[in-house]
Amino acid sequence: MPTRRWAPGTQCITKCEHMRPKPGELAFRKGDVVTILEACESKSWYRAKHHSSGQEGLLAAGALREREALSADPKLSLMPWFHGKISGQEAVQLLQPPEDGLFLVRESVRHPGDYVLCVSFGRDVIHYRVLHRDGHLTIDEAVCFCNLMDMVEHYSKDKGAICTKLVKPKRKQGAKSAEEELAKAGWLLNLQHLTLGAQIGEGEFGAVLQGEYLGQKVAVKNIKCDVTAQAFLDETAVMTKMQHKNLVRLLGVILHQGLYIVMEHVSKGNLVNFLRTRGRALVNTPQLLQFSLHVAEGMEYLESKKLVHRDLAARNILISEDLVAKVSDFGLAKAERKGLDSSRLPVKWTAPEALKHGNPPPRIWLGQASSRQGTEPAGAGALWIPGLMRGCWGR
User: Fold this and answer.
1) Residue 153 CB contacts under 8 Å (≥ 6 apart), including other chains
2) C-alpha atoms less than 13 angstroms from C-alpha of 281 in its C-beta half-sphere
């Protein structure tokens, strides 16, 4: 029995299978996700809702473990077998002692920009140059891949043009496998249970598709670029910590041809399209105020977690079937103490608190705006800005 009580709203993972429930009990398989609704009078039982089936019922506390949040760890890697720019001789040394199927991927020293797949087979290490062809990667020009993760996944199942199937990755020293950590925390989903449908959106880094996971409608963000997918691990880590009715909920992650981020499907789309397709006759002032309240509550929750969204806009507010506004797109969300790549910020309309950790700092941007120099204006500094803003509002 757990040492502490789980509060309503806590997400848990089932530790065993229970497919023949008694009346009132919940059926589940090992690894299913449930949300605690309430604790029963008996401390060893909870009433919970199954994420996939939507059913509610009782289950024993001993069958559960809490779903852990994923830590944003710089050592966490989608490609722990990628060793960067090392020589062929260094690769051979790393792949010792010989073991069929032991492999790593490195950057080519002789051909900058290309990669090399190094595979241990028999007593030898075979080096396969990975070529760029029309935006894809290939070894034999017969089979092409979106990225390195796609290539490794393929040759792990079918040896194809290489000497043997990829069996065991040689992990770079210090690297942690994102796949292992996601599975351990309960956030890694099964690709076989996912059905993809039509595209419903286009983000900065990839398409958003409608789909179905174990009978539940979902939205799937598909990120194929391996570098971008690696960067989006931070977004995933942020979303695993966020549980609020006015935030779009993360269901889990699938590693296939890059990264699939699986989220709840919010049926009425973003606020921009919702308002444009209805007009003032259908969306009255009380409804707009209600949306504003929902957004404010979601943002207040983020603030309580010491997070700044950095890209709050109507296009990133989604409306559910029961007209609940939910904040989405945490691609720019960062912990307040961290730095930021300013090249991704919509500077003109970003709030000052979202800019304050940028490089250069906002006071330098303001100085450049007024004097085209990299220093703060002399004298009163930026006191002219409030007047400029009032003038804009008055137009």
Assistant:
1) 256, 257
2) 2
Model confidence at 362, pLDDT cuts 50, 70, 90, reads very low
DSSP string of 352-374?
HHHHTTSSS-HHHHHHHHHHSSS
CA distances from 205 to 45, 199, 229, 252, 343 (A): 43, 14, 9, 18, 14
What predicted TM-score, i.e. pTM, was given to this entire model?
0.72
Q: pLDDT (tens digit, 9 = 90+) per residue, 276-325?
A: 998 777 889 999 999 999 999 999 998 898 888 878 899 899 999 999 99
- Per DSSP, the three-state class of 380 is coil
- Catalytic pick among 150, 234, 311, 329: 311
Beta strands 102-107 and 82-85, pairing class: parallel
- Rounded CA-CA distance 310/332 in Å is 6
Looking at residue 177, its amino acid is S
pLDDT digits (tens, 9 = 90+) for 49-61: 987 778 899 999 9
Q: Is 299 exposed, middle or buried (0-12, 13-18, 19+ CB in 10 A)?
A: middle
- SS3 at position 180: helix
Query: What number of other Cβ atoms are within 10 A of residue 174's Cβ?
Result: 9
Please give the annotated binding residues for ATP, written as ranges: 221
Binding site: which residues?
Answer: 221
By residue count, the chain amounts to 395
**Residue 143 token pair:** 């089979």
- Two structure tokens written together for 303: 């603030």
Count other C-beta atoms under 10 Å from residue 329's C-beta.
Answer: 23
Q: CA-CA distance, 8 to 38, in Å (whole number)?
A: 5
The conformational region for residue 323 under phi > 0 = left, psi -120 to 50 = alpha, else beta, is: left
* Bridge partners for 168 per DSSP: 102
Tell me how far apart the alpha carbons of residues 164 and 158 are, in angstroms, rounded to a whole number.
Answer: 8
Asked if 226 is an active-site residue, the reply is no
Q: Residue 94's closest CA among 128, 114, 76, 120?
A: 120
